[in-house]
Amino acid sequence: MRNDPIKYFFIWPALFVVLAISIFPLIYSLTTSFMSFRLVPPSPPRFNGLDNYVSLLTNPRFWHVTVTTSIIAFTSVAIQYVIGFAVALALHAKVPGEKLFRVGFLLPMLIAPVAVALIARQIFNPTQGPLNQFMTFLGFPNLPFLTETHWAIGALITVEVWQWTPFIILMLLAGLATLPDDVYEAASLENASPWRQFWDITFPMMLPISAAVVFIRLIESYKIIDTVFVLTGGGPGISTETLTLFAYQEGFKKFNLGYTSALSFLFLIVITVIGVVYLAILKPYLAKHR
Amino acid sequence: MSTRTLKGAPRYFALLGILFWAAFTLFPLYWVIVTSFKTSISVVGQATFIPFVDFDPSLQAWSELLSGERGEFFNNVIASTIIGLSSAVLATAIGAMAAYALVRFPFKVKLASGIVFFVIACGGYLLGANVFGFSRAISMIIAFAIALVLSLVTNRLRVPGPILGNEDIIFWFVSQRMFPPIVAAFALFLMYSEMGRLGFKLIDTYFGMVLAYIAFSLPIVVWLMRDFFAALPLEVEEAAMVDNVPSWRIFTGIVLPMSVPGLVATFMITLAFVWNEFLFALFLTNAKWQTLPILVAGQNSQRGDEWWSISAAALVAIVPMMVMAALLSRLMRSGLLIGAIK
Questions:
Q1: pTM to 2 decimals?
Q2: CB-CB: which of B4, B49, B315 is closest to A93?
Q3: Which among B100, B140, B314 has CB closest to A115?
Q4: pLDDT tens track for A248-275
Q5: Which structural domain, as residue segments, surrounds residue B129?
Q6: B233 vs A: CB within 8 A
Q7: Whether residues B320 and B177 fall in one domain
Q8: Is B323 on the interface with A (CB under 8 A)?
Q9: What whole-number distance in Å separates Cα of residue A287 and Cα of residue B257?
Q10: Per-residue pLDDT tens for B311-324?
């Protein structure tokens, strides 16, 4: 660590951009959230205290949307983690053709979610899509993948799993590469079965990175909008509407600025609560395995 | 050979699982590529899979798309490319500078000065807009400037309270990424519209978009580059310091050349993030600077069943990132990103 006034020159551009473009709008929107303020029909800003927050918290739609978003986020991250761990283990164990798979498996997460949703829309199409043709071939009836609530949520989760499992594979592979070999050598000398080796060595040692990866994915999943926007548009009805989409509808279709600002801050609170609870639950386990 | 390498039957079970996953991963990509060569006859009815066998491939979708007879298209590609490249370059440059400063120089920020910034910015804006009767944009600018100056002054004064060090500043930078982007996107939309009323147009402009993307890429850039700089050996820099080489020369002449792989990887990750970004583009553009994801999302409502042209448009958004994925995975194989991921 050395000291040199030039450090301010290095850090200020970044600091200034973040303060001006990222923090300051938050302050502006925080003040707006305590006002009644509409663009259509125009009504000037008027302070109304916590009214926006109260009316949101008593709006069943807000709770419905929060539950839908949570279902999508938790289910898809759980599936992603299980599949991602399995694939990472297999790749790490050098299955034949492992190098080729490593490249191919990365592709989905680099594709724009809107493009992914457009492809998914074709595949899930009830009459002309390949999935339903396959299902009919197996003897199932044509299924309404995008127009019936449970199937639509399932479709969204599938798309999320398709797109983001690669991220988990990538991170866990990096984690597996750092595990020391000698522990495994000792374990095989003791004739520990691969199953025992996984639960007693690999899994505990991978816990810190697993916790981090799941945390990142969970937070990111709560932000989901692109896929929903294209795939179901929140429908049927509002049954697949997520928090971000709800905020977009309120803010950009109804131009209810105060209400939308309050909504986005409630969203921020939801995310923070989930993050804090998550870290609190995991803390004892993480400390134990340090 | 590591002891963890599978042998015998389990190896083939693992391979079977992997092949299954590969089919799941690759089928949609295969589907979009073949569909872009279909015509209406091969889409209506039942799904078709194999060109020449199932259906007659045709270049119709591509020629329509590239000749521009299906509306604006090049405009979006150009907008996406310009915005993506410039925000990725600038974010990587600014973020790398900040990350380097945070790794090598000690910083002390008093918590009090952060609170001062928040309170003055909030209160100053409200006072200016509601009591003194300035326009909202003017009061925002004034409040921001005063808050910034006062918080800097507070940092110099002897005020009690906790002092934040480098780790806390980095955490603050990275935690920006946790914010749901809708909070920032909507707030930014409001702020940009206020600025527009002042005569300084930011919505649907190059400047406004690039500024927004730089701000929201910085957390990732600082996070990745911090790990990268921290892993560089200190000795070279120390040797240069003994020779009295100024710090900025050490940074541009020694540190940056050593970090080229990290800078390239960070640049590519940022570019992918900006290229695929949807929400900010949805809020902050409406015509001229609309990026590809907005065009692609619009395909859906505009032409529901014309899968061939939808697929072609989606591929234009996908292919550049596939090329990047190939480049990135070559970098990864050289073990470059392992350090950055930890």
A1: 0.86
A2: B4
A3: B314
A4: 888 878 788 888 889 988 888 888 888 8
A5: 108-164
A6: no
A7: yes
A8: no
A9: 38
A10: 888 888 888 888 88
